[in-house]
Design brief:
Blueprint lengths: L1 E4 L9 E7 L6 E2 L4 E6 L4 E5 L4 E6 L6 E3 L3 E6 L32 H8 L3 H10 L17 H15 L11 E4 L2 E3 L4 H16 L2 E9 L1 H18 L6 H14 L5 E4 L2 E4 L5 E3 L1 E3 L2 E3 L2 E2 L7 H17 L4 H4 L4 E5 L18 E5 L3 E7 L2 E15 L5 H16 L1 H5 L3
Parallel strand pairs: 14-18, 18-19
Antiparallel strand pairs: 1-8, 2-4, 2-7, 3-6, 4-5, 6-8, 9-10, 11-21, 12-13, 14-17, 15-16, 19-21, 20-21
Helix pairs in contact: 2-3, 6-7, 6-9
Keywords: Acyltransferase, Lipoyl, Transferase, Tricarboxylic acid cycle
EC number: 2.3.1.61
Catalytic activity: N(6)-[(R)-dihydrolipoyl]-L-lysyl-[protein] + succinyl-CoA = N(6)-[(R)-S(8)-succinyldihydrolipoyl]-L-lysyl-[protein] + CoA
Length: about 400
């Protein structure tokens, strides 16, 4: 027999939920064929067959919470007989307990000092969670412990202190003929928690403008065939928006910065998050160093990330470290919205539906394809003048893309 175990899930992730078995006990499987899908609070992970054979036994049923290294099922050779006719309703064998945490290694004095200088909000979270952050090297500036570090320590301690009990299957629980109740997925819980934290932490405000999309639409119509023929990807709107936002971020660096305790961290790079809606929920994969990439490279990467998001193949590194986010509600028909910050970022741009509207140009009423733009920002770090100026620069770049691409 070969054990099928929970793989390493990524930094700060210690457990997952068995979302769906793709095979039943007794099924013949090929090597590297997907057996089961796990869901963490960040991404979905597919576990493949380590070898060809028969899925003899399913140990962790759908809905069970499992730790890294726990046994999900067992496989035998091609002639093996299934141990069970079908998946057990709950794990029969207790999942192995993770090893006790080793005592923390001595930290350099600088690291201890940085930890002790954790901001009051982080110290409060650590105290409420019953954890000690002194001697811990954090992910903030100079090793300072951040809020995310404290939450991660609390979550990991909880996973190590007890063997997780299996959850009920992730299926609808009918309450009456008029409604049904289903448990929230890990990803949905994380989305809810992070959005509420952003509202509770940041002094969030939204400013609006609108852009005449005539120039971009004309450029797309003129070059779309030759662009696709040369680069193998369609010329969309997102690359124009990414370039326009980068121009604005370079002029208004506070929008590309974040608050860490009593410090402001200015980012001299431009990793742009692109919000993508999926069946599992909203995820924000990141286009790295977008300022160094051509429009064709940006379009290709956005397309690849979007496909990975919809198929559930995003990795943790695809989702981490964005300095600014763009969200396109226009694809769903939204005319105007107030996007919520993707903490710890200080700004997010909301795109919306392009709609023909009458506007006045040179004292003449004309009909133009217009888009409302919304920019939410953290007023603790970004002043109103800076936010408005940033959005105006985005508008100018979209309405005169040639000037933007020539860096004028």
């Amino acid at each position: 027999m070969t054990d099928i175990v929970v793989p390493t899930l990524g930094e700060s992730v210690s457990e997952a939920t068995v979302a769906k078995w793709m095979k039943k006990a007794g099924d013949t499987v090929r090597k590297d064929e997907t057996l089961v899908e796990l869901e963490t609070d960040k991404v979905s992970v597919e576990v493949s067959a380590p070898e060809a054979g028969v899925l003899s036994e399913i140990v962790a049923a759908e809905g069970a919470t499992v730790n890294i290294g726990a046994i999900l099922g067992r496989m035998g050779g091609a002639g093996a007989q299934p141990a069970k006719a079908e998946a057990a309703p709950a794990p029969k064998a207790e999942a192995p307990k993770p090893p006790l945490a080793a005592p923390p290694a001595p930290q350099p004095a600088a690291a201890v000092t940085a930890a002790k200088q954790a901001p009051p909000s982080v110290q409060r979270i650590a105290a409420e969670g019953g954890v000690e952050v002194s001697g811990v090297t954090g992910s903030g500036k100079d090793g300072r412990v951040t809020k995310a570090d404290a939450l991660s320590i609390i979550e990991n301690r909880g996973a190590q202190s007890q063997t997780p009990a299996p959850h009920p299957p992730l299926q609808a629980r009918v309450v009456s003929d008029r409604e049904e109740r289903v448990p929230m997925t890990r990803l949905r819980k994380t989305i809810a928690r992070r959005l509420k934290e952003a509202q509770n932490t940041a002094a969030m405000l939204t400013t609006f403008n609108e852009a005449d999309m005539s120039a971009i639409m004309a450029a797309r119509n003129k070059y779309k065939d030759s662009f696709e023929k040369k680069h193998g990807v369609k010329l969309g709107f997102m690359s124009f928006f990414v370039k326009a936002c980068i121009a604005g971020l370079k002029e208004i660096p506070n929008v590309n910065a974040e608050i860490d305790g009593d410090d402001i961290i200015y980012k001299n790079f431009y990793d742009i998050g692109i919000a993508v809606g999926t069946d599992r929920g909203l995820v924000v994969p990141v286009v790295r160093d977008a300022d160094h990439k051509s429009m064709a490279e940006i379009e290709k990467e956005i397309g690849e990330l979007g496909l990975k998001a919809r198929d559930g193949h995003l990795k943790l590194e695809d989702l981490q470290g964005a300095t600014f986010t763009i969200s396109n509600g226009g694809v769903y028909g939204s005319l105007m919205s107030t996007p919520i910050l993707n903490a710890p970022q200080s700004g997010i741009l909301g795109m919306h539906k392009i709609q023909d509207r009458p506007i006045v140009i040179d004292k003449q009423v004309v009909v133009r394809p217009m888009m409302y733009l919304a920019m939410s920002y953290d007023h603790r770090i970004v002043d109103g003048k800076e936010a408005v100026t940033f959005l105006v620069r985005v508008k100018e770049g979209l309405e005169d893309p040639e000037r933007m691409l020539l860096d004028l």
